[in-house]
Amino acid sequence: MTKTDKNTRPAHRDDISPITASRDGWGFAWQLAKREMRGSLGRFRVFLGALLLGVAAIGTVGSVAESMRSGISDNARILLGGDIEISSLHTAPNPEIIEAASRFGTVSKVVQMRAMLQASDRRKLVELKAVDSKWPLVGTAATAPSMPLADALDQTGIVADDALLRSLGLKPGDRARLGNLDVEVRAALTSEPDRSISFVSFGPRVLISDATLAATGLQQPGSFITYRYRLLLDNSQDRDAAMTTLNRLTAPTHARVREVASAAPGFDRFVNQAEIFLVLVGLTALLIGGLGVAGAVRAWLASRMPVIATLKCLGAPSILIFRIYLLQIFVVAACGVAAGLIVAAIAPLFAIHILSGYVTVPLEMTIYPVPLIIAAGFGLGTAFLFAVWPLAKAEEVRAGDLFRSLIEMPDGWPKPRYLVMMITAAIGLTWLAYLATHNLGITASFIGGSLAALLLLSVLGNILVRLLRLAPLPRFVPARLALSNITRPGSPVRAVIIAFGLGLSVLVTVSVSESNLGRQIDNRVAEDAPAWFFIDIQPRQIDAFEKLARSIDGISQITKTPMLRGRVSKINDIPAAEITPPEGSAWILRGDRALTWSASAPKGSEIVAGDWWPSDYSGPPLVSMSEDAAGDFGLTIGDTVSINVLGREITATIANLREVDWQSFQINFVFVLNPGVLDAAPHSWIATTHADSDAAADAVERAVTSNFSNISAVSVKEAVATAQRVIGLLGGAVRLTALVTLIAGIAVLAGTVASSESQRLADSVILKVLGATRLSIGLAWFLEYAFLGLLTAIAAAFIGSLASWALVHGFLGAEFILDGWLVFGTTLAGAVATAVLGLTGAMKTLGRKPAPLLREL
User: Fold this and answer.
1) What is the C-alpha separation between 119 and 204, in angstroms, rounded?
2) Separate counts of helices (H) and strands (E) for the chain
3) 3 state SS for 411-479
């Protein structure tokens, strides 16, 4: 054979040369990884499912949040009703402010308040909105039947929410009573361009003209009325000049100015907080799924040990082994992440459909790359973090293991360089969490809380296993085998309790807390709640109102207090704008607060610091502040609070602190001033009535609203029903998040079953050789997973009940009552799911015949 023939002869597949040091790079590792990866995806179902779930959750939440922000931003002028809004409470802004605004463009006036709409003998609390002829400056209001808005609101015409018309039995052409005026229903309101975005409302909308409002007699001094003047700029370049001028003019007054950048500040906060919460839930599911990733990778590498040992025999260095299998893991992870991103791109369609009933702006469905990139980073980072440990141990497989059977993966700690990789990956995930939440404190709290919860579950798992080891083994053989499998070294009990127990603990916490809150509300309503809150009572009417209410049989108690609203402008002479408030009390500085005054301490309040002023006190302004609010701002006796009331700034010294029971149905205030400070200001009264029966409650509402057309009645029963609906919605949302973590726990359980497949196969072969039947082996495995489920249920019941107690008693300050049957039912469902799922995954090894395995021994 010639030299040329030797060079051109095709290589025989048995011509294998040793792997030299020059062939341990990434390129050669990729060549080997591609060959070995064929047919391997089927072993990574758990891996793919865990990544898909977490990435899809995080990507969906981010995409929906971005869609809502984009919708608000793109429609900010419609939501605000113009380019700039000037608003005030009780009285309209000073005329010079409106004059200054009109020099920059067109100004439209809107007046909003609550009132009672009466049709025949039926009455309904409504949100009244009076508009001028220029409204709306931006967008279009739609009615059914369709007609020009000017015609619909002409003379005494009203346009009302369709649900309101149905509840009162009204239709276009019918007449109703609003204040002192008979009005005519002209149409149903189907679209209101500048309607605030809200999940809760005090009543349906009624739209009238400003002339009609003046004729109703509802605008009384001190009534809770909001005045809004919208400015549509003639030239958008004048925005900064207009804001500068209006801010300067409104600074010493009670009016406020905002522009399109803060068109929906409350909803913006809600979107941000909801996104943070749900992103962290998705990350929790991803981290729990990471345990399943680790189990799946470990099981897969255990099945590849002969290949790894063969590569070692051929001289493959450890770093090459690590790279070969790391590349395969990344390819599989990329498939899972890609599937999750596809779901995240499609899922917002359904979420937006659900939210469209609450959000008045159009939500555009498009692809938002940033949240998807962050979700992909979470997926790949989690896969790397949880795969490094088993990959690092795989490179420690020795060449001699090729000649052994029933070998296991090396255990112990990996080499320092791999620990550094894991720490780096953890830091990267933390950074991504910060990018997703934009809140370092919440991110740190989440990480700390997650580690604490995982550690507590791990400790509980160890304690329970130790207790089982001390217990005598049962005589029933399947039960004896089940307990032996749980208490043996390397038992999966810790992984199952951590993964499944976390989601189950959240479910127990939510269920028990919601049950406690529902019971608290029901008990409070039955024992303490008044039947009605009456608002906008004029000072000249309060005596007549009280006399009328007391004349009705069955009215057992009447509580009344004066009220008006003001804005906190300074605390200890520091402007409110320069104060960073604690999250729990930020609402105190965010808007106008209800104020009252009293010569004696409010009923039901306990003075915890300082003394109440004398009943005849006539000195400088003093204020009583709620203890919790003062604590949040670091205030004590002698500090000062400045409040802007109708353009007049009042600086009051804190004389005492009160413990306020905010869960009661009493009339509570953060600030109570001494008499003589606000008495002369335009104000109204608020009152509550307790009724012995529903008939008495209905009678007092009819009597008051019939005799005083400007007084509005707020049903406590309806308000409580709304609160319970909101609690139910929140509970449902949190239960959904618990379900996500439970699904991630199922992935971990499946990974645990997969990782123990070879061990179970060996066990089943040995037991069959010893005469065990499939039924007895299957029963033993069922009991094993049933015991695992029971241990998980015990851990979840303990942690969930403890967390619920901390939430209800510690955070909310309510009485905690443990609902044992609810805890039992919730955890039992988790225990049954663990048993069924575990047995389902393990049963396939029972069908394997022992002969093939015995030949390998």
Assistant:
1) 15
2) 27, 21
3) CCCCCHHHHHHHHHHHHHHHHHHHHHHCCHHHHHHHHHHHHHHHHHHHHHHHHHHHHHHHCCCCCCHHH
Report the relative pairing of strands 574-575 and 648-659 from DSSP bridges: unpaired
Return the residue matching tokens 């360089």.
417
Give the single-character DSSP code of 154: S
Residue keyed to tokens 């645990």: 752
Rounded (5°) CA angle 276-280-281: 115
d(CA 732, CA 725): 10
Which residues fall within 8 angstroms of residue 346, CB to CB, at 6 or more apart? none
- Which residue from 510, 534, 536, 643 is spatially nearest to 588, judged by alpha carbons? 643
Q: Above 70 in pLDDT, residue 717?
A: yes
- Phi, psi torsion values for 134, nearest 5 degrees: -85, -15
CA–CA separation, 680 and 687 (whole Å) = 20
Backbone φ/ψ region at 610: left (φ over 0), alpha (ψ -120 to 50), beta: left
CA atoms within 13 A on the CB side of 606: 5
Is residue 581 exposed (0-12), middle (13-18) or buried (19+ Cβ within 10 Å)?
A: middle
- The structure tokens 């160890």 sit at 462
Report the DSSP pairing between strands 122-131 and 205-209. parallel
Closest Cα to residue 743, out of 286, 335, 340, 348? 286
**What is the predicted pLDDT for the residue at 738?**
62
> Contact, 397 vs 320, CB < 8 A?
no
**pLDDT reading at 407 higher than 60:** no
**In angstroms, rounded to a whole number, what is the distance separating the alpha carbons of residues 36 and 424?**
28
Tell me the backbone φ, ψ of residue 172, rounded to 5 degrees. Answer: -50, 130
Residue 846: exposure state from Cβ atoms within 10 A (0-12, 13-18, ≥19)? middle
Q: Are 588 and 581 in contact (CB under 8 A)?
A: yes
The length of the chain is: 857
Residues 363/355, Cβ–Cβ less than 8 Å: yes
Task: Quote the CA–CA distance of 589 and 680 in Å, as a whole number.
Answer: 25
**Side chain identity at residue 438, one-letter code:** H
Interval 199-216 mean pLDDT: 84
Using alpha carbons only, how large is the chain's radius of gyration in Å? 35
Q: Which residues on neighbouring strands pair with residue 128, listed in sequence order?
A: 113, 206
Strand partners, 622: 653
Query: H or E element: which one contains 130?
Result: strand 122-131
Q: Which residues are within 8 A (CB) of 650 and not within 5 positions of it... i.e. 6 or more apart?
A: 566, 621, 642, 643, 644, 673, 677, 678
The pLDDT of residue 31? 83
pLDDT tens for each residue of 731-741 = 666 666 666 66
Give Cβ neighbours of residue 36 (< 8 Å, ≥ 6 apart). Answer: 304, 307, 324, 328
Residue 689 CB contacts under 8 Å (≥ 6 apart), including other chains: 530, 531, 532, 534, 549, 555, 557, 558, 697, 700
298: which 2 tokens?
């470990």
Distances (CA, A) of 701 to 223, 555, 694: 19, 11, 11
In the DSSP assignment, the letter for residue 690 is: E
Name residues whose C-beta falls within 8 Å of residue 472's C-beta, 6 or more positions apart in sequence. Answer: none
Q: Which two tokens stand for residue 256?
A: 């406020």
Tokens 């009819």, located at residue:
702
pLDDT tens across 124-170, in order?
A: 889 999 999 999 998 888 999 999 999 999 989 999 999 889 888 99
Q: From start to end of 170-254, where are the E strands?
A: 175-178, 181-191, 205-209, 226-233
Cα separation of 112 and 634, whole Å?
36
How many CA atoms within 13 Å lie on the side-chain side of 276?
16
Instruction: Determine if the peptide bond prior to 390 is cis (ω within 30°).
Output: no
Phi and psi at 842, nearest 5°, equal -90, -20
pLDDT-wise least confident of 164-178, 463-477, 507-521, 537-551: 507-521
